Amino acid sequence: MAExxxxxxxxxxNDDEALLCLYCxxxxxxxxxxxxxxxxxxxxxIIVVLILSFFMLIIR
Length: 60
What we know:
Elements: E1 4-5, E2 12-13, H1 33-37, H2 40-59
Antiparallel strand pairs: 1-2
């Protein structure tokens, strides 16, 4: 089990699945699943492209 250091209070967290710090309650900035691994800008770009292609299909 890997130890993770909270970026806010600098206390070690031993829980691999924790998303919040046990000591200060701060977010641990861990990505969960696919959504946490890709940057937000890329995700928004993909959604916009899908919406635009859907509209182009309807207009055609």
